[in-house]
Write a structure and sequence with these properties.
Blueprint: H1 20-28, H2 33-39, H3 47-53, H4 59-71, E1 75-79, E2 87-91, H5 93-96, H6 99-109, H7 123-133, E3 144-150, E4 153-160, E5 163-168, E6 176-180, H8 182-189, H9 195-201, E7 204-208, H10 210-216
Parallel strand pairs: 3-6
Antiparallel strand pairs: 1-2, 3-4, 4-5, 6-7
Length: 229
């Protein structure tokens, strides 16, 4: 009698290196792992929302990455209270401490001549870029609340003390409301596309303090491209 051959998933390879950077790669070095963490940086998300915001990832791979990050203590699963009662994934306090990693990588990679800003961009990715690239000197003296409605997601931005904070959810009593998509807002902030042109195309809609808007889109200068020989 011939036994049926079974196939087990390959064991995760490790660097077997005591260096902290090597262990960090043991934790988050698998493809898509860092981007899953990125998408949870501004609050919990459902599986379907994570998959929608990570173009190209399969449901199987997303499941594997979520399981791996959960077993490492970087995220947890929980169920929202009624009436939502949806299962979501959320970073642990230690998981949230990874944001400086994204800031350092983002600043460094923004200098790459090969970076293509026209590729898809999630709302969370755009907001993290704002928190990374904000120039405290340019933002000095601004104390404002800005509502962003990007696709199906809503966020409240708070500008104060040369910093920017972002939380999920609709907000009232803001000085400025921007409605549109993450790529359209990125085109205004990082690509220099005039707001008026984006409004004429229907890509953005703006209500509120126009002077604040004009200043807001200048607060996030990109670094010079690296010289590559």
């Amino acid at each position: 009698m011939q036994l049926e051959k079974t196939t087990e998933p390959p064991a995760k390879r490790r660097y077997e290196d005591a260096c902290g950077a090597a262990h960090a790669l043991d934790l988050v070095g698998e493809r898509w792992a860092l981007l899953v963490i990125r998408e949870l940086m501004i609050g919990p998300k459902r599986f379907s929302d994570l998959k929608a915001d990570l173009p190209g990832i399969s449901a199987n791979v997303l499941t594997q990455r979520l399981e791996g990050l959960e077993s490492a203590g970087i995220l947890v699963r929980r169920t929202l209270p009624p009436p939502a009662s949806a299962r979501v994934y959320e970073l642990t306090p230690w998981g949230y401490e990874a944001e400086p990693i994204f800031q350092a990588l983002g600043r460094w990679a923004a200098r790459s001549p090969g970076h293509d800003p026209r590729l898809p961009l999630s709302s969370v990715s755009l907001l993290l870029s704002f928190r990374t690239m904000i120039d405290p000197e340019r933002a000095r003296g601004i104390d404002a609340r800005i509502a962003l409605r990007l696709g199906k997601e809503s966020f409240l931005l708070r500008l104060s003390d040369g910093r920017i904070r972002a939380v999920r959810g609709a907000a009232a009593g803001t000085e400025l409301v921007i409605t549109g998509t993450a790529p359209a807002l990125a085109a205004a902030v990082y690509g220099g596309v005039p707001i008026a042109a984006l409004e004429a195309e229907g890509a953005l809609a703006v209500e509120g303090d126009q002077a604040l808007l004009e200043r807001f889109v200048t607060l996030f200068p990109l670094p010079a491209k690296a010289a590559v020989r």
